[in-house]
Each structure stands twice: as structure tokens, then as C-alpha cells.
Amino acid sequence: MSKTGQEDRPKVKVEEKLFHNRYLVDAGRPHIKVHPHDKPSAALLSLTHVCPAGCYSLGDGGKVEIVADGCMECGTCRVLCGPTGEIEWNYPRGGFGVLYKFG
Amino acid sequence: MTAEHFDVIVVGAGPSGNAATYTLAKAGLKVLQLERGEYPGSKNVQGAILYSDALERIIPDFRDSAPLERHVIEQRLWMLDDSSYVGMHYRSDDFNEERPGRYTILRAQFDKWFSQQVRDAGATLLCETTVTELVRDEGGRVIGVGTDRDGGKLLADVVILAEGVNGLVGRSSGLRNELEPASVALAVKEMHFLPKETIDTRFTLKGNEGVVIEAMGTITEGMTGTAFIYTNQESVSVGIGCLVSDLADKGCSPYELLEAFKNHPSVKPLLAGSETKEYAAHLIPEGGYKAMPQLFGDGWIVVGDAGHFVNAVHREGSNLAMTTGRIAGETVAWLKEQAAPCSKVNLREYTRRLEESFVMKDMRKYKNMPSFLHRNLPLFDLYPRLLSQAAQTWFRVDGVDKRTKEKEILTSFRKGRSLSGLFGDAFKMARAWR
Ligand SMILES: Cc1cc2nc3c(=O)[nH]c(=O)nc-3n(C[C@H](O)[C@H](O)[C@H](O)COP(=O)(O)OP(=O)(O)OC[C@H]3O[C@@H](n4cnc5c(N)ncnc54)[C@H](O)[C@@H]3O)c2cc1C
Ligand code: SF4
User: In sequence order, which ranges of chain A are alpha helices (DSSP H)?
Assistant: First the structure.
């Protein structure tokens, strides 16, 4: 029934959106890590789409990788992959991370 | 290391934490508030509509100094299909009153203002400090917190957890379970800047009048979710949110949904020529009453989003945050006055007071709504399409007689969803609403 679907959505680069934001990146201390895995669970795999900052991507050999620099600390990946145990999630150290001017 | 001792430690400087801290400081208690952001508001996201009543009960003259954008004189509810919307608009000059009940705000600026009031009331605020754990005594009672800063533990008679939806401190301390993907919505939002006159013209406004639009329909592609457009002085907030479980099942990117919403023919002209200045994402706890965690224990209380206090049907959250924060503050101040400890037994008073207020009454009223919406249904796809088709059939003057048009509309509904399906949906909706 649904006429609209993935194919019809306008393509956007999330980087162009993140570019508007201010961040204080804690260099060398990423606050989210993906544990080594052979095959990602469906939940982990879904993060390559669902993460609103596009932090997760599919790397070599079908493994999911993260670059958390654009992370907005929403917690979605924690909710989805906390139970599967595939990621480690912390807030950035106090003062680091995203800095909203308007919110 | 000797640790400094406070009457109360509040974790978080959002509306719930600020309301609690303000109330406690005004009552003369020694309060320490901890916030992980560089400044209060730097991590926080809201639509944002501020409901005056909740704030008025804390700071009656807030209108004199708070950074308010526009007062809301018109509410639009839209059901969208791919090319149209069916809408209900309510606009009234009565909302141009001396003390308006709803304002649009920008959360980062509002939180900064609220925090200033908190500090003026005498509380101590420490920013750039992430609370990492709760400290307990041998008996298991919470007696303070540990942070990611050097310098030992911070101790207090009671800790108020105003840490927002993720509730990491509560979770890592075993006070609560992990959030269910079907109990939280992920919302993304953009700030679009336009000259004030342009906004006034496009939304037919003058002075500080504002319009808010809530939209649902095919824009969420069958997922449980809604979108919004709120007018500020010189900007328009645009956002969309869906349940995390739905987004994951569909493998859907929220920013693509946002982009599609912005490009909907009903929305695009409202934003034309605007300059985007921020993109934000945040979770909203939408599981309602049934998803609420334990709210208090020996030496601790939970307020605001951390307690799942959101009324998703009415788009209320910050007011529940402020109200639960205020009531938690009042309860602790009341116990202190009697030199009674903040034990689990005594803190039951917090939920007793919540039960008396609108907070628990509303949470209970809609306790079946989240599961109704989640199991649902044609609400986010089929019905918006049918409605739009019906309206189009009805309004087109094309030589077809009216009786035939009526029949066409009825048939389209019955074809789309069987008669029993239609009645069933209406019945379930009514039950969840009751
Ligand atoms: C897109 C969107 C639109 C919304 N629209 C509306 C609306 O129009 N009207 C409305 O009333 N509500 C709305 N809400 C809901 C509203 O924003 C929330 O209910 C409200 O912000 C909850 O306040 P809070 O103080 O409980 O949590 P938050 O505002 O999340 O504040 C929590 C604070 O705690 C801090 N913190 C968290 N963990 C730690 C830690 N470990 N150590 C130190 N500090 C910590 C955070 O940095 C933050 O400042 C909306 C929400 C979203 C996401
Ligand atoms: S917290 Fe949110 S923005 Fe950050 S990586 Fe996870 S899903 Fe993406």
C-alpha cells in the first residue's frame, strides 16, 4: 500500500547537516566502541541507517565500524545494542561532545 | 580524602533538575547540581513548546526575564498523505492574553536562563562534570555520587536523578532496567532561520504571535511517529520522530525522513529560502505509565524524562519534568524541616504527592495508548490516504452528483479496511483514550 518508501526519499548527506553543529571532540578517547565481531546482529546492522549522525558504517568483511565524532549522544545505539552486548557506550567526558546553541 | 557534604545533590540541569534545585535552594537547603555539558542546555533538545503553568508554579514572574520566542495563538493538526494534508486548525485571539499559556522557546537558551535563576537562588552548579556512579553505605543507602573529575566522592543526604531519558546513572546502579526500543522515540530536528517578517507573512502572524503544527501520516511511512513545525521569532523549528523499534525494523535513516518531510508540498513553501543553523537528535521516552521505573528508594529520587514522565499524546514533557522536579524538591524540603531522613519509607511521600497532582492522573489515563499506537495500524499510512482521497472527492466539482461521491468515499474506506476493521480500530482507539 505504502507509496512512499526508501527509494523515494530525497538523498541527503548527513555530513552536510552535522557541519552546522559545534563539537568539542575528545581526541583519542572515543566514547563509543564497537566490540570485535564476526557477524553483526540485525540490531547492530540497523545502526548503519538508524544512527541520526551516520556514525556507523559497514566496513571490510561485513563488519560494522564506528566513527563517533559527529555523535549527538542521543543513546539510540545504546538502546538497540546494549542488550546484544556489541557496543560499549559512555557519555563523553564532561564538557566534551556536542554543544547545542539552540537545542 | 575528605568529601564535602551537601543536603542534596541533583544530577542534571535540564528542566526537571533546575526545578528541583531551585525549589530546594529557595527552601534554604545546601544543594549541589552537576551537569555534564559545558553549560546547561548544551546537550538538550526540545521542539519546543513551554507550558506556562508548570513554570509559573516555580517562578511566577518568569515572563519578565525568560527568553521566550512567541506565544502560541494557533495550533494546527495535520494528517498528510504524499501530496496533501487534511487539517484541523484552531486559532483564537483569546490566546493574545496577558499571561499566555504556551510559548515557543529555544531550549539551549531557556536552560541557561533557568540555570541562572537556580544559581541566584543560592545553589552551587558544577558543569563539565559527568556523574558516573552512585555511592552507597554498607546498608545500600545512596549517600552521594562519583564523577569523572578528580577529587573523590561528593556526599549528600539524598540524590535527585534528573539525568534525562537515557538514565545511565540509574541504570548502571541497578535502579532500573534498560529502555525498550518500543518505548522510546528518536527525534531529529533542524533550526531554519528566516527574517521575522517572512515568518509573520507565511504564517499570518503579528507581533509575538506564533503557530505550532503537529503532523502525522505517510511522512513516517507506516512507522509510529509524528512531525512538527514551530515558529520562533526569527526561526522555524522542524522535526520528526519515530519509535526506535520501528526505525530499526525498517532500517530507516531519520535524517532522510526529515528531508522528505521538509520537501512535502505542504511544508516546503514554509521553509523556502531559510538558512539551516543546527541539526539535533534526542530520544523521547514514550512508553508511558507502564514503562516507568521505580521512582524512589533509600536516598534517591527520579524526576523528569529519567522517570519516563512524558505524555506523548499531548506532546508534554518539559512541564512534567518541571512539575516532578518541583514536587521532589518540596518533598525533600518538607522531610528536612521535620529532620526526617530521606529513607525509602519517607520518600513514598513523593509519589503520594505526584498521585494528587495532574502528573499521575494523566500518566494513568493514557497507560494503554503506547501499546495501542505501537501495534498500530493503518493510522500512519492508510487512514491519512483515505482521508485525503475522501476530501478530494468531496471538494472537486466535476459533474459527479453528490450521492455518488458519498458512495465512492464510503466504498474507498471499506475497500481500504473492512468494516469490522474500521470499527475495531475506532473501538481500540476509544479504549486507549478513555
Ligand atoms: C524533539 C523533541 C521535542 C520535544 N517537544 C516538547 C515540547 O514541545 N514540549 C514539551 O513540554 N516537551 C517536549 N519534549 C520533551 C522534553 O524535551 C523533555 O521531557 C524534557 O527535556 C525533560 O527534561 P529533563 O530535565 O527530565 O531531562 P533533560 O532535559 O534531558 O535534562 C537532563 C540533563 O542531565 C544532564 N545529564 C545527564 N546525565 C548526566 C550525568 N551522568 N552527569 C551529569 N549530567 C548529566 C544532561 O546533560 C541534561 O542537561 C520534546 C523532546 C524532544 C526530544
Ligand atoms: S548515540 Fe546516537 S548519534 Fe551517537 S552514535 Fe549512537 S545513535 Fe549515533
Answer: 14-18, 42-50, 76-81
